[in-house]
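Researcher: Last one for today. Full complex below.
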Amino acid sequence: MIEQVSDPLPQAGYAKVVLELDVNNHPGVMSHICNLFARRAFNVEGILCMPVSDGTRSRIWLLVFDDQRLEQMVRQLEKLEDVLNVRRHGAEHEVFERLEGFFH
Amino acid sequence: MMQMTGAQLMVRLLERQGVRTVAGIPGGAILPFYDALSGSEQIHHVLARHEQGAGFIAQGMARVSGVPQVCIASSGPGATNLVTAIADACLDSIPMVVITGQVPQAMIGTDAFQEVDIYGITVPITKHNFLVRSAQELLEVVPEAFRIAMSGRPGPVLIDVPKDVQNQLVTVAEFPAPAVADPAPQLDLEAVELAAKMINEAERPVLYLGGGVVASGAAPLAVQLAEQAGLPTTMTLMALGAMPMDHPLSIGMLGMHGARYTNFVLEEADVLVCVGARFDDRAIGRAAQFCPNARIVHIDIDRSELHKIKNAHVAIHANVKCALEALLPRLQATLRKRWLSHVDSLKTRFPMQFPGQDDPRTHYGLVHAVAAALDDRAIVATDVGQHQMWVAQAYPFRRARQWLTSGGLGTMGFGLPTAIGAALAEPDRTVVCFTGDGSFKMNIQELATLAEEGLNVKIVLMNNNALGLVYQQQTLFYGQRLFASKYRTEPDFVKIAEGFGVAAVDLDLADNPRAALAEALHRPGPCLIHATIDREQFVYPMVPPGAANTEMIGG
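Model: Here's the assembly. Have a good evening.
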């Protein structure tokens, strides 16, 4: 008897999406977010985080593939207590492009 | 202005939140809290014998009351022992606040004695968790933990408190207000209209109730919905009791061990109304072949459950109770004679079968005999395995929160401590814990807790000296290669219970097992009722793992 096991989804080939998250700024927030992606084997291609305004909040930018699970991922991100909101941008968003110079 | 330690503040905040019974085990890193707890005149502490037991005692209290309950452990092994009970609460959406001691902040990250990163460990199995960094923070964190545990879809929240934070002095000007649940999300009335239209126009609709109906206290509304719109109604394992099993519209539990006719009715549905359920794989079998012809209305408090497994044609993000209140006045009263008589004919042709139900020495017979000796006031807890499915199939559940079982995680060892928790929360009721010999041994030490508290818990042990469901699967699906599923020695459970100070009855030795059973159930106080059952009896019908629900074997 072989149980139904879904194949790992190939992510290459999908368009990229930029997610912009407003989050509370304290130790542990990043681990809640990364954990959510990691346990689903959903690779985060790029990640950026800096505090904003008075430092009680941070903004996180994530670069991910737009595979069919993304909508679900976003809903689960929105459920996290420390995630205040999530905005989606297309791959043309320049936040990661402008950093290219530091990596190449 | 009041000055107190962090530990004293925690105790005061728990008292103000209305917490009256907690379960736990003390240890080095949580001793300041225990010292403060000893001064509380309002909170009764139940000393468990293993932290997992404490976790399930809290769950038992939460499952019958619907209110978040508290368990406590020390750092390191104390905290890791709670992990299974936390994960179980997460998967079954049970509100719980878990308090763990932690090594002093200065020692965190040094591999100190009894240090584990329980905050990191519990990230994926809690709704939210906190590592408290100052006593001042407790003023915010403790009410927040309760608010999160009870708001929206309930779940467990962990508060990890370093020892120095428990000892730190804090000045409190005013206590925060006790937490209340967040208001329900705004209801999308347009979607409700659409759902009503779909149900009104349906020819073969089916209502599919899940644990969310119980959690939101909407069971009477769900029954009203079924009656008004003429909907045959199936329940998940978590929803059993939401509609009385003997209600004419009830088609019983669906899924892996549901009746044949139940799964056949679902197969024919043209509209499926899913209320507070999540299309779990044990309930729906192969997702693509579940209700292949049905348009789906899905009502759930958790937005991320909508469209997760099956795309809904109408998805309503709402508290189930609010949604049903809005839906009811929009539904036509319908007799739906044709569809219901077809459902009846499927039920007659492919009924749930209970071989041996009149003989209390068989598994179904024992479940029936227990039910016959009790009324609807009794609470029924189970462990996990064959006995759990037999009880789910055969016990006549008639009210919400009557049935406590580990659904999502399927934790063996759940039954006894959960039954203890249920009896603590509702001491006037009889609590029956159906268990198997495999499960029972996984938290058997809680017999000591039971004896100490003297609670009205009756353990019905269905003993086949095997891991029955494993034995069944190896027999059916692994070429009868039986491995590691039969025990080679057999403990004397009657002696074990008596050794712990719990009365015991062996039905195997009784001339009249039915009378002996009834007498044991009606005698106040704890009791173990031992009954040997036949290892070759399997749970039927069964949908093989990964198959569609219509591909059942047996039954």
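Helices of chain A lie at 29-38, 70-79. The longest strand of chain A covers residues 16-24.
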